[in-house]
Amino acid sequence: MAVFTPDIRIQSADFDLAAEVQALTAGRTDIGAVVTFSGMCRGEAGRLSALELEHYPGMAEAEISRVARQAAERWPLQGLTAIHRYGRIEPGENIVLVIAASTHRHAAFEAASFLMDFLKSRAPFWKKEHQADGSSGDWIDAKEADEEALRRWNLEAQG
Amino acid sequence: MAVFTPDIRIQSADFDLAAEVQALTAGRTDIGAVVTFSGMCRGEAGRLSALELEHYPGMAEAEISRVARQAAERWPLQGLTAIHRYGRIEPGENIVLVIAASTHRHAAFEAASFLMDFLKSRAPFWKKEHQADGSSGDWIDAKEADEEALRRWNLEAQG
Amino acid sequence: MKLVYFAWVRERIGKAEEEVDLPIAVTTAGELLHWLKSRGEEYENALQYPDVIRVAINQQHVDHAEKLNGAREVALFPPMTGG
Amino acid sequence: MKLVYFAWVRERIGKAEEEVDLPIAVTTAGELLHWLKSRGEEYENALQYPDVIRVAINQQHVDHAEKLNGAREVALFPPMTGG
After folding, report:
1. Can you give the residue ranges of every domain in chain C?
2. CATH number of C2-77
3. A27/B41 Cβ within 8 A
């Protein structure tokens, strides 16, 4: 069904929301709806100085690409981009970007929401907190709510 | 619940997605999720030369503001922007922008999706087609699917 | 009372707005539609299927059963197609 | 076989990767976790609750029941917290 290859990038550098939307839509007159999701590092009211994002190189790209292709088969999409950063990220900075383009708004909303739910609890990334007071921070625990969010999509079995 | 006023604009000029996201998020470290929806004019495979968007001045701003305030009470949002254009809009050009910012991704997704469903069938705008072959185009019919999409939110009674 | 029309309602009636003096018997939005239909071919043409016509009183969307109550501005238009 | 560790599994074991020779009796991901736990205090500490540990074989996420089948690379890590 999909006539495009999802654009998946794992990088330490920041991304440019407008440039990424442009890359998907420029010169096209067949796209009716573009949904973007930007995830940012929160400062937790001054408690955090940064997040450290660790990832599994190779597997991260492969897993996100696999699930992005599932999304492109499940919804009538015309473009799908996912960029996930790693390394040290400070409050207010971008962590993740997902863009879904479609003829139809609900397809774009659902595909972007689905891919974010996947990234939260299945993409091999781990977040560690750096405390503003210099004390050693903890690894962030996975949330049961994120598992539940993923279940509502009836994701195909892994592997 | 909402500690901000939704930013609602009705204008003939285009908008700048990146600048609008910046306006909501710049200098803030408490926003974790920003969802944007951009709606564009489709060319319908060359059949259309443009859409003409008519609106009801005054009522358009008032209605969108009213429903945006409902969204800000229903979801834990930190910012909400809606910009709807009117006048002649050509294929590939922007028609509408909605941005929802929140601590939580599902709140941002749902608020943006809700506001778009409202705009589709309750905001006082009407679209007329201009045919590429110069023949007189028709007014676009409202879709039952859009009515259904709106019903799923159990919108409060009008007025 | 000021009446304003949009989209194909405006095109079929042939004007964007007008001032009218309502008969005393016309008290609801639905009765207004019924009365307007009798005012000539262009109104008959625009309001042929009153059920699909949406009404706003003083820029608030209302049911056809809503009382006009000396409204300042009443708008008639087709179902909206924004977004 | 190459083992790779991430996040607090890596920190507690004290290394990011290592080569190991598996006993013949260790054939599944779950058995690998059980065997590793016996290799010393740092492993015991990292793998105390094996149920929460996620396993990837050749960069594919698998159940603990999955056969290792002479895998090139096996990764152990906590539940993911991306996005």
Report:
1. 2-77
2. 3.10.20.30
3. no
